[in-house]
From TrEMBL:
GO terms for cellular component: extracellular space. Cyanocob(III)alamin binds at residues 142-146, 186, 240, 289, 382-383, 399-401, 408, 430. Belongs to the eukaryotic cobalamin transport proteins family. Pfam families: Cobalamin_bind (PF01122), DUF4430 (PF14478). Its main location: secreted. It is found in: Secreted. Keywords: Cobalt, Cobalt transport, Disulfide bond, Ion transport, Secreted, Signal, Transport. This is Transcobalamin 1. One of its GO terms (biological process) is cobalamin transport. The gene is TCN1. InterPro entries: Cbl-bd_prot (IPR002157), Cobalamin_Transport (IPR051588), Transcobalamin-like_C (IPR027954). GO terms for molecular function: cobalamin binding. Disulfide bonds join 26-265, 105-305, 155-197. Residues 1-23 form the signal peptide. It comes from Otolemur garnettii (Small-eared galago).
Amino acid sequence: MRQSYQLPLLGLLLFSLVPSQLCKTCAISEENYFRLAPLLRAMDKSKYTRGTDAANVLLSQRLVGIADPVIKQHLLQQVKYNMQRNVSNLTSGQLALIVMALGACHTQDEKVIYDYHLIGQLENKFRAEIENMGAHDGNPLTNYYQLSLNLLALCLFNGSYSIPEVTELFSPENKNYYLSGQFSVDTGAMAVLALTCVKRRLMNGQIKADEKAVERISNHTESLVKKILSEKKENGLIGNVFSTGDAMQALFVSSDYYQESQWNCQQTLDTVLEEISQGAFSIPIAAAQILPAVMGKTYLDVNSCVSSAGNFNISNPVPITVSPPDSPSNISVNYSVRINETYFTNVTVPKGSVFLDVMEKAQKENKTIFGFTMEESEWGPYITSVQGLRANSNDRTYWQLLSGGKPLSQGAGNYIVHEGENLQVRWSKY
Ligand code: CBY
């Protein structure tokens, strides 16, 4: 009895001793800015996309203070076009990114948020995600990465959410942090950013709740940070190359929860710079998700932007033209579809083809067995069905892409296939 009475007090005492809102970052030095050119080139391509990756690019650019009016105008048009068409077409995470992009750095574009009542719509989408969890065994409409983006945007732009509900929802034991049995670093990182925002508002007295709430949110954050750090690889990447940017942001804002010796930020940054030079971030969204971290920024900085445009003298990148190979040769790969049985084929495609080209070639040969459908996503085509069997987030089913039995870390539109490779799409649960 005595102990349970003392615990909250002890928590409060410990809390007041911990230096809060600490934020440790490591960032690229100015003389190395030229190494970011491939990212700027990649983000430039979002001028030609119709998707919501434009929002991610705009958010990222504003955070690092690149004021390219042409790109900005194009992105803004895209976002407005999207809004006017039908907001209900957007998923919760897409709308959250649009809100953050428009609201970042308090420009006149912020007005669009209020003209279109985007905060109210975001609150509705958050509610719908939670209701779906109630009806479908704890599975949201989309996923926890998007729920985290949703909470983050609501927190940053004064939307409402229930603190007890949020602490319950984002408990580190929740299965939604895991995809196919593996802790999703991207998801955990986004949750840390959202929870940190909520905690800061609680502590500043901007929102009210009992002190237990702060303590629970701190515990959740600590546990998620531990899981993120345990996915650190020898070369410094956290999860894989595409999750490292989000993970860095999460670690920047949560340095209260780990020792300096547990993370060598400079090593991670160096490896990321190396990956940039090798062309790892060639699609706009991948570039947009790594850029803030490399510049030492996080999504929590949207309300306190500083202009670094003056120093950033590589804003008009010239694309490097790669001449196509003289004689395009063909390669042959094995391709299979696995449901309960496995259906095999062998197809010939031009060298440099991607996974999707293989799937299309197989489909042409046998529509019944290799027929498939896809949808455009920010990361490129997402395979929605094969043989008419459709992925469904209510039962966590999806079509997994593999090579040599190992899951790929790129989508069908980006993974370049090699001679003799054993490619597979597999009916799976995440
Ligand atoms: N973003 C989202 O909603 C996606 C969140 C995310 C965690 C995302 C990775 C991280 C990010 N930064 O955006 C994510 N993937 C999720 C949640 C999912 C699941 C989607 C479930 C749902 N109902 O929303 C799911 C089904 C488990 C999934 N990803 C599948 C896949 C495979 C797609 C195959 C297909 N059918 O087309 C694939 C290719 C893995 C595989 N081997 O099958 C895959 N994802 C990959 C590789 C990735 C990475 C993409 C990297 C790249 N260069 O293309 C990823 C960044 C991402 C997008 N997935 Co998912 C993760 C990584 O490698 N770090 C919010 C929205 C607004 O943009």
